[in-house]
């Protein structure tokens, strides 16, 4: 199926791969924000995950260990943020920015020896005859395991927040930390756990970029993906299932833009590369228009420090 | 048992002491980092912080210090005003790029005409470019309530791509043998932002940075607008009763910081850098965020913090040359500085009580 020189099936199949890093990061950030913490350091955690995952995979030869390494590195960065904002009660906006600046520097430092190296390849999941189904097979059953893991994580996050008691506590902490504290819930501990989860997913998303999506390590390779993940959380009105839509929409534009470049349209490459960022802004604006009339979707305690007065 | 008790008022003493404590802590942690990288930490710290100021060839490095500090101070002064009001412009890098494109485009369009008013016109255009780029997140925030943080940051990537497009396309040097990048403005006397006194490093951008420090000081400390900005940041509801219009404040802060960042970009592209290339920007817009916080969002503090950050850039280059320290190590160093600063700020806002006595 080819329209205007672009193969639609390839496009949709590419879309799933292009969306996975931001989908992972956005899902993680969503959980952190649901607990009432605004971590603007997603970009920093992602790029640290990207370099740590890459380094681990190259030195062990195992992509799976690479992903574990990336997730751990992302979580470690998130813990740094947690210590500063939850224990030292620093300003969350400023600390998030610091995390991003620090992560960009740290990753460049760690990544220097790995430039130009090829990571071990991650194979596609063998679905056997399923992947031979026309159209659907190429779209749904031709990916690596992380793509399916990301979808599973979205589903698990959705179910966790909606149906479990722990999810309810997490949301309570994010809506009103003083009330949650009065009920005996440990606000700081819940938030640290949520942040660690967010960091791990951001790290995983970063590792996906460097190990599968690109696949190689270059300095600053996340190129704003972490910030786009933050925008997707807003777009999703803090709901995991909508984050999926947001991430795939973004991935679709990225894939389309790459396909247009490949199809040889006479649009300058650099103007095409702007598309995902411009689209993110447009979507944020459209969404704000919708929200003006509707309910306030953000967790009520988002971005506020908690300090138990007594 | 260690407990934290919130101070009724932030401590003045700690507010100015924490940056110093943070710098010392960063030197220690940075020393550890350099030791891990297999360098002698004491030597590395000396090369970064001492040699550029007092070592051999210090005259040259001192002039470079001004060249690097000027854009940082200029941008940070604008950012600090917004940060005070709780308006987070983190897209200064983009405004810097657009300012440079605007100003340089004028020079490239009229090349090789010579006139004394070309350079002032470029500066004005640079400021307008940055201002317009800052106006986008401001208007979107005022009209639609969109987060200025995300929009201003997204616009950095848009600006970056626009810069690359310009360098490879419309602004490419027609006599450049097909290489990307514009004509070098250093070879165009009317447009060249040259040193005003040879060997000092002082160009128009340095004077503008000093002017910005004074102007922002007057604005924030001596003018009603500055008072309103501070109230808006510290007590938004009280500010409304005091007649502050949030929309106007948002537009003002983002336009001011955008214009200053745009000017900084123009001074850089017409002077030290000389050319529009796809990588002429080196992240001053981000480092300026650190400068603003390290300077306590106060113009005098920013002046000192800007010089210190410029020193880490120059010292970092030296350490790279002499000790083979990776250039990214300096970025880590700057990031750590901000972490320590934010962490130690606890002392400004809270008292630490040891013992179980009830407050």
Protein topology:
The complex is a heterodimer of chains A (310) and B (359).
Chain A: E1 2-3, E2 6-7, H1 8-34, H2 42-60, H3 63-87, H4 92-111, H5 136-140, H6 145-163, H7 165-175, H8 177-182, H9 187-213, H10 225-235, H11 240-262, H12 269-293
Antiparallel strand pairs in A: 1-2
Chain B: E1 2-6, H1 12-36, H2 41-49, H3 51-54, H4 58-84, H5 92-110, H6 118-144, H7 148-168, H8 204-222, H9 224-234, H10 236-241, H11 246-270, H12 284-294, H13 299-323, H14 328-344, H15 346-349, E2 350-354
Antiparallel strand pairs in B: 1-2
Which class best fits the helix and strand makeup of chain B? mainly alpha
Specify Rg of chain A, calculated over alpha carbons: 20 Å
Query: Any idea what the CATH architecture of chain A is?
Result: Orthogonal Bundle
Radius of gyration of chain B: 22 Å
Approximate helicity band of chain B: 55-70%
Summarize the structure.
By secondary structure, chain A is mainly α. Helices cover 70% and strands 1% of the residues of chain A. Chain A has one domain: ABC transporter involved in vitamin B12 uptake, BtuC (Orthogonal Bundle), CATH 1.10.3470.
Describe the overall structure:
The complex is a heterodimer of chains A (310) and B (359). Chain A has 310 residues and is mainly α. Chain A has helices spanning 8-34, 42-60, 63-87, 92-111, 136-140, 145-163, 165-175, 177-182, 187-213, 225-235, 240-262, 269-293, and strands spanning 2-3, 6-7. In chain A, β1 and β2 (6-7) form a beta hairpin. In chain A, α1 runs parallel beside α6 (145-163) and α1 runs antiparallel to α9 (187-213). Chain B is mostly helical and 359 residues long. Chain B has a single domain (66-325), classed as ABC transporter involved in vitamin B12 uptake, BtuC (Orthogonal Bundle), CATH 1.10.3470. Chain B contains 15 helices and two strands. In chain B, α5 runs antiparallel to α6 (118-144) and α12 packs across α13. The model of chain B has no long low-confidence stretch (mean pLDDT 87). The chains are: A mainly alpha (310), B mainly alpha (359).
């Amino acid at each position: 199926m080819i329209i205007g020189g672009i193969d639609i099936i390839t496009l949709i199949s590419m879309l799933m791969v292009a969306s996975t890093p931001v989908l992972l990061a956005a899902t993680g950030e969503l959980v952190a924000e649901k607990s009432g913490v605004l971590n603007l350091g997603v970009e920093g955690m992602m790029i640290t995950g990207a370099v740590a995952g890459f380094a681990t995979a190259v030195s062990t030869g195992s992509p799976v260990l690479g992903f574990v390494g990336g997730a751990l590195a992302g979580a470690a960065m998130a813990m740094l943020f947690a210590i500063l904002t939850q224990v030292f009660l620093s300003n969350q906006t400023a600390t998030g920015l610091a995390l991003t600046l620090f992560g960009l520097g740290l990753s460049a430092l760690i990544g220097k020896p790995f430039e130009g190296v090829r990571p071990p390849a991650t194979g596609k999941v063998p679905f056997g005859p399923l992947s031979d189904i026309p159209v659907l097979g190429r779209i749904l059953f031709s990916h690596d395991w992380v793509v399916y893991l990301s979808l599973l994580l979205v589903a698990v996050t959705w179910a966790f927040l909606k149906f479990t008691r722990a999810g309810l506590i997490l949301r309570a902490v994010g809506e009103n930390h003083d009330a949650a504290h009065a009920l005996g819930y440990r606000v700081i501990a819940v938030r640290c756990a949520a942040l660690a989860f967010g960091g791990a997913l951001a790290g995983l998303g970063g590792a996906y970029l460097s190990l599968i999506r690109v696949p190689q390590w270059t300095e600053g390779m996340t190129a704003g993906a972490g910030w786009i993940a933050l925008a997707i959380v807003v777009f999703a009105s803090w709901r995991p299932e909508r984050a999926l839509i947001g991430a795939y929409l973004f991935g679709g534009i990225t894939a389309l833009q790459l396909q247009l470049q490949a199809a040889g349209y006479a649009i300058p490459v650099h103007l095409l590369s702007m598309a995902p960022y411009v689209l993110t802004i447009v979507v944020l604006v459209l969404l704000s228009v919708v929200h003006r009339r509707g309910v306030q979707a953000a967790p009520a305690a988002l971005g506020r420090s908690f300090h138990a007065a007594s | 048992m260690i407990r934290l008790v919130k101070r009724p008022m932030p401590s003045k003493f700690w507010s100015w002491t924490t940056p110093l404590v943070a710098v010392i802590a960063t030197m220690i942690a940075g020393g550890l980092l350099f030791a891990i990288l297999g360098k002698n930490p004491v030597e590395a710290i000396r090369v970064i912080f001492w040699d550029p100021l007092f070592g051999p060839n210090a005259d040259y490095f001192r002039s470079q210090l001004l060249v690097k500090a000027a854009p940082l101070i200029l941008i940070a002064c604008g950012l600090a005003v917004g940060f005070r009001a709780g308006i987070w412009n983190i897209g200064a890098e983009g405004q810097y790029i657009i300012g440079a494109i605007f100003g340089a485009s004028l020079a490239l369009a009229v090349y090789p005409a010579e006139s004394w008013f070309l350079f002032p016109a470029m500066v004005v255009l640079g400021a307008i470019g940055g201002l317009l780029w800052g106006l986008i997140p401001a208007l979107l925030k005022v009209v639609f309530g969109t987060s200025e943080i995300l929009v201003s940051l997204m616009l950095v990537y848009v600006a970056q791509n626009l810069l690359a497009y310009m360098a490879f396309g419309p602004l490419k040097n027609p006599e450049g043998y097909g290489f990307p990048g514009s004509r070098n403005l250093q070879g165009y006397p009317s447009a060249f932002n040259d040193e005003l006194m040879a060997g000092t490093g002082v160009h128009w951008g340095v004077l503008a940075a000093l002017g910005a420090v004074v102007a922002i000081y007057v604005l924030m400390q001596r003018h009603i607008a500055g008072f309103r900005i501070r109230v808006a940041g510290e007590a938004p509801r009280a500010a409304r009763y005091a007649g502050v219009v949030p929309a106007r404040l948002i537009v003002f802060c983002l336009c001011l910081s955008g214009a200053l960042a745009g000017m900084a970009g123009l001074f850089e592209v017409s002077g030290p850098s000389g050319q529009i290339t796809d990588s002429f920007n080196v992240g001053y817009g981000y480092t300026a965020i650190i400068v603003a916080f390290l300077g306590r969002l106060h113009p005098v503090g920013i002046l000192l913090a800007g010089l210190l950050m410029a020193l880490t850039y120059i010292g970092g280059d030296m350490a790279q040359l002499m000790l083979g320290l990776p250039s990214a190590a300096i970025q880590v160093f700057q990031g750590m500085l901000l972490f320590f600063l934010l962490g130690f700020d606890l002392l400004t806002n809270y008292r630490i009580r040891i013992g179980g006595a009830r407050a």
